[in-house]
From TrEMBL, chain A:
<dbReference type="GO" id="GO:0030956">
    <property type="term" value="C:glutamyl-tRNA(Gln) amidotransferase complex"/>
</dbReference>
<keyword id="KW-0934">Plastid</keyword>
<keyword id="KW-0067">ATP-binding</keyword>
<dbReference type="GO" id="GO:0009507">
    <property type="term" value="C:chloroplast"/>
</dbReference>
<keyword id="KW-0150">Chloroplast</keyword>
<dbReference type="InterPro" id="IPR018027">
    <property type="entry name" value="Asn/Gln_amidotransferase"/>
</dbReference>
<comment type="function">
    <text>Allows the formation of correctly charged Asn-tRNA(Asn) or Gln-tRNA(Gln) through the transamidation of misacylated Asp-tRNA(Asn) or Glu-tRNA(Gln) in organisms which lack either or both of asparaginyl-tRNA or glutaminyl-tRNA synthetases. The reaction takes place in the presence of glutamine and ATP through an activated phospho-Asp-tRNA(Asn) or phospho-Glu-tRNA(Gln).</text>
</comment>
<comment type="similarity">
    <text>Belongs to the GatB/GatE family. GatB subfamily.</text>
</comment>
<dbReference type="InterPro" id="IPR017958">
    <property type="entry name" value="Gln-tRNA_amidoTrfase_suB_CS"/>
</dbReference>
TrEMBL record, chain B:
<keyword id="KW-0436">Ligase</keyword>
<dbReference type="GO" id="GO:0005739">
    <property type="term" value="C:mitochondrion"/>
</dbReference>
<dbReference type="InterPro" id="IPR023631">
    <property type="entry name" value="Amidase_dom"/>
</dbReference>
<comment type="function">
    <text>Allows the formation of correctly charged Gln-tRNA(Gln) through the transamidation of misacylated Glu-tRNA(Gln) in chloroplasts and mitochondria. The reaction takes place in the presence of glutamine and ATP through an activated gamma-phospho-Glu-tRNA(Gln).</text>
</comment>
<dbReference type="GO" id="GO:0016811">
    <property type="term" value="F:hydrolase activity, acting on carbon-nitrogen (but not peptide) bonds, in linear amides"/>
</dbReference>
<dbReference type="GO" id="GO:0009570">
    <property type="term" value="C:chloroplast stroma"/>
</dbReference>
<dbReference type="InterPro" id="IPR004412">
    <property type="entry name" value="GatA"/>
</dbReference>
<feature type="active site" description="Acyl-ester intermediate">
    <location>
        <position position="238"/>
    </location>
</feature>
<keyword id="KW-0648">Protein biosynthesis</keyword>
Length: 560, 561
């Protein structure tokens, strides 16, 4: 179904009130907006922070004012089918290929609730420390828009499935760190709308209903945040939560996680809130941070110039290019959505057994992980990195299970492994290195079996090709020492890497073979192998061949 | 001790083949072998018919209504007739009567082909579905794949749904042939079919009168034997009121008994699919087929579906007082002021007939009864304002040719929707608006709770409640067009039942003056939730024993002569 609208629709569309800002999101994908925290790599994290830092330096003086920030987050659930029909949803499918009479709102069709939606909602409610409504219901929220097939959205109004919770957040060290607890007002279930695709010329729009009816959880926070970084960290923590819980991919670029932020500013000491402004169109946490800080400074400036009456209750869009917010629409009074109980769906009744079972099945959540890592003696920087991505955390935990030293494991993961991931654009679940081999590697270095440098070499082989630490150690030695020595068990190797010790061995061998040395210096360079063999023999096979050859080469040339 | 109920439709066959228009007495003689021992109950003191002999049907022989479904089945099984013969007969009659009554918005072009298919099935000796070869009219707000389904609205003109409503699917699976889509008030909003976006249906008893509504087309089609049975929908009386007006049996099942999937929603919490038949048995057989839980309708009930038809025993097995011990409550509020005196006397006569059959009649009061009408109009309009939002011209149906979004909505709906629908959307939108919600919608829900409770209390003391189905007989076309309040007031007898979600059966019980042959009056019997079985049994006994039961409209009577 490609519906053509004619000229005029776009300008007009702004007069329609909507609950989400998806419609107005720019469709072009921009790599720079990639949600960095979600990628789970140290370097992108740092880049993100570096981007933000100068912005904060430019922040105007907020002395005497405080910002009040509340966030509505829409999380798209990755259930197999939509919330009320059996259509699948696959992001990026051809328009109108995953639709049916139910999600198209055909006459006579009725919604049937996907039980997974309730399960996911309960999981998130529990993870956000909320109270659950053992009996909740659905309501209809009415507005007209071409992407809303039924003319109403099935949502929850006065009895949301979860209420009154909180979320704990650790602020990044670069921002001064600190622990925060933000209140959660409610979590409710609802369905997503379709999408309008506006033509380049703006003369018509097309409707894609693939997304219509996809389940969402809307999370409403208390107005507890006070700065851009707090808001961004709140959103990042929500993303971590939904990923840890396995209820959403939390991908901001695909619109699986969308944040609408309400910002107001008031003089410190005043209890009444200032006029709130809603900001939409932020495609990353860093954009959230910057957009909010921009908006705060804009409002503070108006306040301090005595123009607080110029702050309107409105929706503003964040423009990444301009690094500014712009008015999208002014609200003319409150929208009346004419909520009333959805008569097509029975009440949602939770049983204690159902909730208990889900409660027991909850994974360890980011906050608990961070506290656990903290107790291991890791730095907050390490803690935040490792607990940011559940796959990374799983990898780390699995390597610890095998006895790896936490600090060393953290260093390997945050350093070489994550650099490799970044270069190869891989996630930690896609590499050939197993947590067990990482712990073996760490142990081999720790007990002196191999040097750190060799360890690094082995690591890259493991990352790229897989295999075991043991076999790689053997293989390496065989390649370089097989000319002379029979294969031995790796356990017999205690590699001598100390250059001084090897140098002594080399000197000894050179002194014992003056004839061969003379021949070598006369041009018979292939005798280097002979000398190497002798040195190795002298070392009982324990000399590091690389170091040996390097020192031998220098000595044979008589350069020292 | 009462005889055991008849267990299967085939055993029912023995006793219900009295179709005068195609089975001669000779042919049915062997089937009614025990007719000599059949007992009849005559109400000597009171006739359920009007006391005015002028308007009573001329043929005074008692012919209790027989099952058309079973006689079709019997004639197919005995190879006396083919499904094609039956279909041909109905189609012929449809073509002759349709210009007068205009019951149908669409008549299927594949009826004969489907009938021949049934004949091939018969020839093959394979099992026939319970509705094999039965021609069913389907109200136009019930979706049928491959046939237009407009809900009587211009905004859906030409719309063909991509699926069958669950009830239609079940009919087809039972072997039924959908003969066409019947006229109705737009989206079910109206009591006359004058609110149809396409045409006005006439009452076969008097073509200057309305057939009732909103399922007027379905009722008149069964009354005029344009089809065997039909499906309707009942939100506030839309099956029962036209059944009363057209002199046919109308059944409104318990909310949730029949899946609403494929029924264009008017007021979702009140809507039910119901059925029309020329006899209680036919209604029972159709209910059997369409009932049951449906995974596509979360509000459909998982309550067990009994074999409704098997509880209907033949008159031959009736005791002298088959309703002995039955406690019947006559709702006092329904037989007082504002109700046509002829209707009251018909209902009282019907009550006396029930008494003759052994029931005890007690007047009961439902104090919240009069609150039902305003509560109903608030709730139904509120839900309608929401349910009809989808008719926006964007995805299907008629779209105005405009180049701006607001006009697209505005013009498509302004052009496509009729005045009654617009009024109810406006009323409902108002009732749900911030600041008015508590005063209207919420309060109406409270009234609904009261009504539910008062019915529950009354039905704890009584087995069934009875009342007129409508306060008046069919009125003239145009009579109430400009007086919507008078039309709404006509729903007083029925809306409470929807608010309480209860089942109700309307059975023709008498006549009042009007037209050339009098106008039929229907008796409404209301039971507790999921007591259809009981209602059908009582209704069956009632109709089979009612003296001078002959509800053949003049239109058809003339046809036959």
């Amino acid at each position: 179904m490609a519906l053509i609208f004619h000229r005029g629709i776009i300008a007009n569309s702004q007069f329609f009130s909507r609950s989400s800002g998806v419609l107005f999101r720019r469709l072009r994908a921009s790599r720079s907006c990639t949600s960095a925290r979600g990628e789970g790599t140290a370097n992108t994290l740092k880049e993100e922070l570096i981007q933000v830092a100068p912005k904060r330096a430019l922040e105007p003086n907020t002395h005497g004012f405080e910002a009040i920030i509340g966030i509505e987050t829409h999380v798209q659930l990755f259930t197999l089918t939509k919330a009320f029909c059996s259509c699948p949803y696959v992001y990026g499918s051809r328009p109108n290929t995953t639709i049916c009479p139910v999600c198209m709102g055909h006459p006579g069709t009725l919604p049937v609730l996907n039980s997974k939606v309730v399960e996911f909602a309960v999981k998130l409610g529990l993870a956000l420390n909320c109270g659950l409504s053992m009996t909740s219901k659905f309501d209809r929220k009415h507005y007209f828009y071409p992407d809303l097939p039924k003319g109403y959205q099935i949502s929850q109004f006065d009895i949301p499935i979860a209420t009154k919770g909180f979320i704990d957040v650790d602020l990044p060290v670069e921002f001064g760190g600190g622990h925060r607890r933000f209140g959660i007002t409610r979590v409710h279930m609802e369905e997503d709308a379709g999408k309008l695709l506006h033509s380049e010329t703006g003369s018509y729009s097309q409707v894609d209903l693939n997304r219509a009816g996809v389940p969402l959880l809307e999370i409403v926070s208390e107005p507890d945040m006070r700065s851009g970084i707090e808001a961004a960290e709140y959103a990042a923590e929500i993303q971590r939560l939904v990923r840890f819980l396995g209820i959403s991919n939390g991908n901001m670029q695909e619109g699986s996680l969308r944040c609408d932020v309400n910002v107001s500013v008031r003089p410190i000491g005043q209890s009444k809130f200032g006029t709130k402004v809603e900001i939409k169109n932020m495609n990353s946490f860093s954009a959230m941070n910057r957009a909010i800080d921009y908006e705060i400074s804009r409002q503070v400036l108006l306040h301090s110039q005595g123009q607080s009456d110029q702050i309107f209750q409105e929706t503003r869009l964040w423009e990444e290019g301009a690094q500014k917010t712009f008015t999208m629409r002014k609200k003319e009074g409150l929208a009346d959505y004419r909520y009333f109980p959805e008569p097509d769906l029975p009440e949602v009744v939770l049983t204690k057994e159902f909730v208990d079972k889900l409660c027991q099945g909850l994974p360890e959540l980011p906050e608990a992980k961070r506290r656990r890592y903290e107790k291991m003696g890791l730095t907050m920087q390490d803690v935040l990195f490792l607990a940011n991505d559940n796959h990374v955390a799983e990898f780390f935990d699995a390597s610890l299970e095998n006895g790896a030293d936490p600090k060393l494991a953290a260093n390997w993961i945050m350093g070489d492994i994550s650099a490799f991931l970044k270069n190869e654009r891989l996630s930690i679940t896609e590499i050939k290195l197993t947590p067990f081999e990482l712990s073996e590697l760490i142990a081999s270095i720790k007990n002196g079996t191999i040097s750190g440098k060799i360890g690094k070499e082995i690591l890259f082989e493991l990352l790229a090709k897989g295999g075991t630490v043991q076999s790689l150690i053997e293989e390496k030695d065989l390649v370089q020492a097989s000319l002379i020595f029979p294969v031995r068990k790796a356990s017999e190797f205690i590699i001598i890497v100390d250059p001084a010790a090897i140098e002594a061995l080399v000197d000894k061998v050179l002194a014992a073979n003056p004839k061969q040395l003379e021949q070598y210096r006369a041009g018979k360079t292939r005798l280097q192998g002979f000398f190497a063999g002798q040195v190795m023999k002298e070392s009982k096979g324990k000399a590091n061949p690389l170091v040996l050859n390097q020192i031998l080469g220098v000595k044979l040339k008589g350069e020292s | 001790m009462p005889p055991p109920p008849v267990r299967s439709p085939s055993s029912l066959l023995l006793c219900h083949c009295r179709l005068p228009f195609h089975i001669s007495p000779q042919t049915r003689l062997p089937l009614s072998h025990n007719s000599s021992v059949r007992r009849r109950f005559h109400c000597s003191a009171v006739s359920a018919l009007s006391s005015d002999p002028q308007i009573a049907p001329t043929d005074l022989t008692t012919t209790p209504p027989s099952s058309h479904i079973l006689s079709i089945r019997e004639s197919l099984l005995s190879r006396r007739r083919t499904a094609a013969d039956v279909a041909g007969e109905y189609l012929d009659r449809l073509r002759r009567t349709e210009p007068h009554i205009r019951s149908f918005l669409h008549v299927s072009e594949t009826t004969m082909r489907e009938a021949e298919e049934v004949d091939r099935l018969v020839a093959s000796g394979k099992d026939l579905g319970p509705l094999a070869g039965v021609l069913v009219g389907v109200k136009d707000n019930i979706c049928t794949a491959g046939m237009p389904s407009t809900g009587g609205s211009r905004i859906l003109e030409g719309y063909r749904p991509p699926f069958d409503a669950t009830a239609v699917r079940k009919l087809k699976e039972a072997g039924a042939i959908i003969i066409g889509k019947t006229n109705m008030d737009e989206f079910g909003m109206g009591s006359t079919t004058e609110g149809s976006g396409f045409q006005v249906t006439a009452n076969p008893w008097d073509i200057s009168r309305v057939p009732g509504g909103s399922s007027g087309g379905s009722a008149s089609a069964v009354s005029a034997k344009q089809c065997v049975v039909s499906l309707g929908s009942d939100t506030g009386g839309s099956v029962r009121q036209p059944a009363s007006f057209c002199g046919v049996v109308g059944l409104k099942p318990t909310y949730g008994r029949v899946s609403r999937f494929g029924l264009m929603a008017y007021a979702s919490s009140l809507d039910v699919i119901g059925c029309f038949g020329a006899s209680v048995i036919d209604s029972a057989i159709v209910l059997n087929v369409v009932s049951g839980h449906d995974r596509f309708d979360s509000t459909s009930s998982t309550h067990e579906v009994p074999d409704y038809a098997s509880f209907l025993m033949s008159t031959d097995h009736f005791e002298s007082t088959p309703l002995k011990g039955l406690k019947v409550g006559m709702i006092r509020e329904t037989i007082g002021d504002g109700v046509d005196v002829g209707v009251i006397s018909s209902i009282k006569a019907a009550a006396l007939h029930l008494e003759e059959l052994g029931a005890t009649i007690t007047e009961v009061s439902l104090p919240s009864f009069s609150l039902g009408l305003p509560a109903y109009y608030v709730l139904a309009s509120s839900e309608a304002s929401s349910n009809l939002s989808r008719y926006d011209g964007v995805r299907y149906g008629n779209r105005a040719t405009v180049d701006e979004l607001n006009s697209l909505y505005g013009d498509s709906r302004a052009d496509g929707l009729g005045p009654e629908v617009k009024m109810r959307i406006l009323m409902g939108t108002y009732a749900l608006s911030a600041g008015y919600y508590d005063a209207y919608y919420k309060r109406a829900q409270q009234v609904r709770t009261l009504i539910r409770k008062s019915f529950k209390d009354a039905l704890e003391k009584m087995d069934i409640l009875v009342s007129p189905a409508v306060p008046s007989p069919a009125y003239k076309i145009g009579e109430k067009v400009n007086d919507p309040l008078a039309m709404y007031a006509g729903d007083i007898m029925t809306v409470n039942v929807n608010l309480a979600g209860l089942p109700a059966l309307v059975v023709p019980c008498g006549f009042v003056e009007g037209g050339s042959a009098g106008l039929p009056v229907g008796l409404q019997m209301i039971g507790s939730s999921f007591s259809e079985e009981k209602l059908l049994r009582i209704g069956h006994i009632f109709e089979q024993t009612l003296p001078n039961y002959r509800f053949v409209p003049p239109l058809l009577f003339l046809e036959l002569v």
